[in-house]
Design goal:
The chain is of the alpha/beta class. The chain has three domains: about 1-80, MurE/MurF, N-terminal domain (Udp-n-acetylmuramoylalanyl-d-glutamate--2,6- Diaminopimelate Ligase, Chain: A, domain 1, 3-Layer(aba) Sandwich), CATH 3.40.1390; about 85-305, UDP-N-acetylmuramoyl-L-alanine:D-glutamate ligase; about 320-450, Protein-Tyrosine Phosphatase, Chain A (Alpha-Beta Complex), CATH 3.90.190.20. Helix content is about 35%, strand content about 20%. The protein contains 16 helices and 22 strands. The strands form four sheets. Strands 9-10-8-11-12-13-14-15-16 form a nine-stranded mixed sheet, sandwiched between helices. The protein has a six-stranded mixed sheet with strand order 17-18-22-19-20-21, sandwiched between helices. Helix 4 (about 110-120) crosses helix 10 and helix 10 (about 280-295) packs antiparallel against helix 11. It is globular, with a radius of gyration of 23 Å.
Length: about 450
């Protein structure tokens, strides 16, 4: 518990109302109240959290963090900037817990959320992990403020939309262990090239606490190069490079597209059978295993925790077989050229000779590379012999130009895609949904995975 006066002192604010004790856990949605917690009123594009302060307090919030006084709500902590105040409060909160807390930060162009979910499985309780993909300047404080004196591991997913984003997050909570998964062709239009993406991801290494450990994917040469700037111990995971600390051998896919492999660290080995669909998840599993290895968890315990672990977060390679025998592969949370390629390969592995249908929307924020990357997507679909490519929107339609005649359906929007899928899909088909989140192809995935 923490007094409102103490929060005000930390955030350079002022208390209006009774200086009471509250739960430091914060929330930003008045519909999902943390009882006794701190409601943080943000101004969004379509709504203002200040309009919901009274409702949040009435529903059980202990207090609200606001940027101006309100006549009908108490108690309040009034600050100049709610977002900044949340960050400062989260930084102080974690600093007070540091003696018995290990902070693990995860970044990468792909795989962050899956790896974070796997870490939740392999690390011992009590562990606090980022929910959903709350990996930005608002999400990280929300996660950090959930930690308590009983928490032993705090796992923070760190994303970047521009240079400096991860540096800011590590300035709030410096990691003891930083994990870098991959540098892929994501947000190229914002960063200005893949080398700039690599520089942004490396901020998580520069932001380590003194003596911190860097856990790096040695199979990605841009990630491997970050060892040169690591301030302390480097632990390398992967499948292809030499002298790896944690690796996988004898990798094979079962009949459902899930990977089996032998997990190895030093002289130890143990069998893993993932519940996640797609061979690319082996790398994510190795990253989680490498962190557990650093923390001294026995390898057999790690392998047991990884085995059978399915997707915990929505729209990430979730496989559903409907009553009409159509198999839906929902990987529609987001997309870049590398994750799109991995998803298409997983589709063919899952199908095992059944008809394959790929429903793809735009890969956004690719800048000047947009047209060529969507054309390359079409060429890969053709090389993999995807039976039917359904594109949604004008950007994704460029992929259809590279497919054989008759193997595509160009849809202007979601409504047209619905009609096409209703007409085209039949029993035995395996259908993949994949696109950047802003394309909203995930809505189609929800409809088809949930339909009966």
């Amino acid at each position: 518990m923490i007094a409102l006066g103490e929060i005000a002192a930390i955030c350079d604010g002022a208390v209006l109302g009774e200086d009471t004790l509250i739960n430091p856990e914060a929330f930003i949605d008045s519909r999902t109240v943390v009882t006794g917690g701190l409601f943080c009123a943000f101004r969004g594009e379509n709504s203002d959290g200040h309009d919901h302060v009274a409702a949040a307090l009435a529903a059980g919030a202990g207090a609200a963090l606001v940027d101006h006084p309100l006549d009908d709500a108490r108690p309040l902590v009034v600050v100049d900037d709610v977002q900044r105040a949340m960050g400062v409060l989260a930084a102080e909160h974690v600093a007070r817990l540091r003696e018995n807390l290990t902070v693990i930060a995860v970044t990468g162009s792909v795989g962050k959320t899956t790896t974070k979910d796997l870490l939740a499985a392999v690390l011992p309780d009590p562990t606090v992990v980022t929910r959903s993909s709350f990996n930005n300047e608002i999400g990280l404080p929300l996660t950090a403020l959930r930690a308590t004196r009983e928490t032993r591991q705090l796992v923070l997913e760190m994303g970047a939309d521009k240079a400096g984003d991860i540096a800011y997050l590590t300035s709030l909570v410096a990691p003891d262990i930083s994990v870098v998964l991959a540098v892929a062709r994501a947000h190229l239009g914002v960063f200005g090239g893949i080398e700039k993406v690599a520089e942004a991801k490396a901020e998580i290494i520069h932001g380590l606490r003194p003596g911190g450990v860097s856990v790096l994917n040695a199979d990605d040469h841009r990630v491997a190069a970050m060892a040169a700037v690591a301030p302390g111990r480097v632990v390398r995971f992967g499948r292809l490079a030499d002298d790896l600390d944690v690796t996988a051998t004898d990798v094979e896919l079962d009949e459902t597209g899930r990977a089996r492999f032998v997990l190895r660290a030093g002289e130890e080995s143990a069998l893993v059978h993932l519940g996640l669909v797609g061979e690319h998840h082996v790398s994510n599993a190795l990253a989680a295993a490498a962190v557990a290895h650093v923390l001294g968890t026995p390898l057999r315990d790690v392998a047991h925790a990884l085995s059978g672990r399915a997707a915990s977060s929505p729209h990430r390679m979730a496989v559903t077989t409907r009553e009409d025998d159509i198999t839906v592969v929902d990987d529609a949370y987001n997309a870049n050229p590398d994750s799109m390629a991995a998803a298409l390969r997983s589709l063919t592995a899952i199908a095992r000779g059944r008809r394959t249908v790929a429903v793809v929307g735009a890969m956004l924020e690719l800048g000047d590379a947009e047209e060529e990357e969507h054309a390359a997507l079409g060429r890969l679909a053709a090389d993999l012999r995807i039976d039917l490519l359904v594109t949604v929107g004008t950007i994704a339609a460029r992929a259809a130009d590279e497919m054989p005649s008759g193997g595509t359906r160009r849809c202007a929007d979601l409504a047209e895609a619905r009609r096409v899928l209703t007409a085209e899909l039949r029993a035995g088909d395996v259908v993949l949904f994949k696109a950047s989140n802003g394309s909203q192809v995930w809505r189609l995935a929800d409809e088809w995975a949930g339909a009966r």
